[in-house]
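name: query_chain
kind: protein
chains: 1
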Amino acid sequence: MKAAQISRAGGDWELVERDIPEPGVGQVRVKIEACGICHSDALVKDGVWPGLQFPRVPGHEIAGRIDALGDNVTAWQKGQRVGVGWHGGHCFVCEQCRRGDFAMCLNRKVTGIDFDGGYAEYMIAPASALAAIPDELPAEEAGPFMCAGVTVFNALRNSGARAGDVVAVHGIGGLGHLGVQYARQMGFQTVAINRGNDKESLSRKLGAHHYIDATATDVVVELQKLGGARVILATAPNAQAISALVDGLAPSGKLLVPAAPAEPLTISMFSLISRRSSVAGWYSGTARDSQDTLEFSALSGVHPLIEKYPLDRVAEGYEQMHSGKVRFRVVLTFGA
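structure:
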């Protein structure tokens, strides 16, 4: 099979031929049809993930079909359409797993980091990491839902916001353009926030009721005109911009941060105390969460905006993502 790997920290992409792997106990082999390129893949490309072993095939936005079953896999069938996301499995025995909180497993694995991911024609995945893909979703759309999609969908549905509440999405990019769609489809009064007005038309088309140009107006003032935001989903990893959003929250509002900036946030505790508001991070979710994301997307008509590249143009596709030029997700395609 063909695969794109990184052999050392900061190394170039290498297109290699590998033997097609065989699944072990509790595993399946997936014949990959599409794999999204995510900003988090830079953790492999730059070699900054602790304990990362090279060579490594990145990729955790995977859509394909089960090609082979390992022993003791009973809930899945050969030929079934499946996705594999960031959450690459859990141990079932740690304290968090015993409480059913598999996303917080102390020994959780990450696809494309702890084991080879989706920048290849085949990959091996634990059965516990699989999400069933609805027939209505093409593989190239299902892939980005396995990380970008589940991250914002899961954050919003667990945010505490209720239908009719003001929910703002900060940053209309790879995560944000999906966040706007989910917020609208969940029944929230949806506000899109971005620098400049070049994404206003698109944001409204995606479902935003309001658009705030952060370069032309005071974001906090505009949010407070709406009564403040019950939730602000901060998808643009800019610490200064995120920190300033706190004063735009409504009483008991929540600033949710699923995209980590490199610098720490600088937030006034007085702002939090006076409004009884909070700041929280959000981890993507388990395979079941990913499947919920896929099913909701198919049901409500949420679609990622993508640019497709074949595997032999992986370097070009990665650079398109890394430079921020893509609108909004890069997807490697392998054919059906």
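note: The mean pLDDT is 96.
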